[in-house]
Specification:
alpha/beta; FAD/NAD(P)-binding domain; 3 domains; eight-stranded mixed sheet; 15 helices; globular; binds flavin-adenine dinucleotide
């Protein structure tokens, strides 16, 4: 138990970060109140506006949620569309497919709404937790450098020993801190001007895709476009197209199709040529944002999780996993039994370290585009050169690929890629990669025929890396992928 009174904790926000935090607190506090300004969503809708967009729950986040709420992944497997594996998906990234085998790569094939509803149902069943929907926190109550509770928008005072802010990117906490006489925390922003449009595809995609349940076509600089397709619960198929720096997908069937035609892997364009996209949801994400609460002097008994601390570029699919990993860390921090001042001081740094791992990966990757603006992480150009070499080595060396996948899946911190063994294997693989590229370019400039678009669909469940290639450059890269096998 934490502190000297330790009987009531308040969580602000009942989206993914708030729910995960409540799950962690419920084992340590007899009473946990979750304040949420919106009404409770019905069925498997998400409470968050972005919840209508296709979301990917990365394996690192899925595992953390399972540890917090045992049985959750079985719930999702039953109610959802199963789970993503290397065998039932394909990931295009400069020609390499993520060939990482093993159970740890589990990620549910479920809509964001279903993930959230399943988490909410399990949290709701915890005896310590009580939700107050339709009630917004309007300020903090601070006395003698310590949080003693919150005041609601209805003017009600709620007393608590610990307040966890999970109120998302629009959190008012910096303003409340200022009102309580504390300096507002510094903020870092990295502008990418990402345009995102989610949609659903009608029709029998199982037949079209022959066993493939998910595909990610990653943007590789200088190309600014990416796409995702996901088979989720109820036989629904979600699709997502995105583009950087104002290269926005149109939210109409013809424009959407035309946008997808420029993706380096033709799978999504082929699907869109056969199946009608409906239910368009445009979303603009201007900038990643990191609020450095760890650099501010916070009152004791206050912590921050989720998007309120770090809102990263959604194309890397990290937000829910950051929230889950932070909630798990919150539980471990409480188990130390620190007093409230130490909990806040040590805890905010620990939570920030988790946020920073996601920030490093996403912002680092975004700075591979010269047009990205904002707070440049130290040594980003050098790190990006190393990551580019790691990506190439992935097509040759499964050990490097496993390390890369673990980092992308939030199962390992980015420092894993800097371990001497991985650095050595990466460097050794470069020569083989270049030779494979040369052989592939020679073949491509010779007799390689352009594959018909439909071939990509026929090959969708074929596991030869690069079988998807139709363009000359893709073909060149795919041959290098074959070298890995
Ligand atoms: C377009 C888009 C796509 C994304 N795709 C992915 C993905 O594929 N994978 C992934 O892991 N993540 C993704 N994310 C990020 C993910 O949605 C968030 O990281 C996740 O929802 C956790 O956020 P959160 O709970 O901290 O904040 P939010 O989800 O924003 O929720 C904050 C909650 O706090 C409530 N609230 C706000 N103020 C108050 C107040 N004063 N009092 C009480 N309640 C309050 C709000 O009503 C809301 O319910 C995406 C984000 C966007 C924008």
């Amino acid at each position: 138990m934490y502190g000297h009174r330790s009987d009531h904790a308040i969580v602000l926000g009942a989206s993914l970060a708030g729910l995960a935090a409540a799950a962690a607190l419920a084992r340590r506090f007899p009473r946990v109140t979750v304040l949420e300004r919106r009404a409770c969503p019905s069925g498997s809708a998400s409470i968050a506006p972005q919840g209508v967009m296709p979301h990917v729950l990365l394996p690192g986040g899925a595992q953390a949620l399972e540890r917090l709420l045992p049985g959750l992944l079985a719930d999702l497997d039953t109610a959802g569309g199963g789970h993503a594996t290397v065998e039932n998906g394909r990931w295009w990234s400069e020609g390499w497919r993520v060939p990482y085998p093993g159970d740890t790569s589990y990620a549910p094939l479920a809509s964001r709404g279903l993930v959230e509803a399943s988490v909410r149902a399990r949290v709701d069943a915890l005896p310590a937790v009580r939700f107050e929907h339709g009630v917004a926190a309007a300020g903090l109550r601070v006395r003698d450098g310590r949080v003693i509770g919150v005041v609601t928008d209805g003017g009600r005072d709620l007393v608590a020993d610990l307040v966890v802010d999970a109120s998302g990117r629009g959190s008012r906490l910096p303003a409340w801190l200022e009102a309580a006489g504390h300096a507002a925390p510094p903020v870092s922003e990295v502008k990418v001007d990402l345009g995102y449009v989610g949609a659903e595809l009608e029709g029998d995609l199982d037949r079209d895709l022959g066993g493939t349940r998910w595909a990610v076509i990653q943007n590789v600089p200088p190309a600014t476009r990416m796409g995702v397709v996901l088979g989720v619960e109820g036989g629904r198929w979600l699709v997502l197209l995105g583009g950087y720096f104002g290269d926005r997908p149109p939210a109409d069937p013809d424009g959407y199709r035309a946008f997808a035609a420029a993706l380096p892997d033709p799978l999504i364009a082929d699907l869109l040529a056969r199946r009608r996209p409906t239910a368009f949801h445009p979303y603009r994400f201007a900038a990643s944002r990191r609020v450095h609460f760890e650099r501010a002097r916070l009152p004791a008994g206050l912590l921050v999780v989720g998007d309120a601390m770090t809102s990263v570029n959604p194309i890397y699919g990290q937000g829910m996993s950051v929230a889950a990993l932070q909630a798990e860390a919150l539980g471990a921090l409480l188990d130390r039994g620190d007093d409230p001042a130490s909990l806040t001081r040590v805890g905010i740094r620990r939570l920030a370290a988790i946020a920073d791992q996601a920030w490093q990966v996403s912002v680092g990757a975004d700075f591979a585009y010269p047009a990205t603006e904002g707070a440049r992480p130290p040594a980003v150009a050098m790190i990006n050169r190393h990551v580019a070499r790691v990506m190439r080595a992935c097509t040759i060396d499964p050990v490097v690929c496993a390390a890369m996948s673990d980092v992308q899946y939030m199962l390992s911190p980015p420092s894993r890629l800097m371990q001497p063994g991985i650095v050595l294997r990466t460097l050794r693989a470069q020569g083989r990669w270049r030779r494979a590229q040369t052989r592939a370019s020679t073949a491509a400039s010779g007799s390689l025929p352009a594959a018909p678009r439909t071939a990509a669909l026929a090959h969708a469940s074929d596991h030869v890396p690069g079988a998807e290639a139709t363009s000359r450059s893709s073909a060149a890269r795919s041959s290098s992928s074959q070298a890995w096998r």
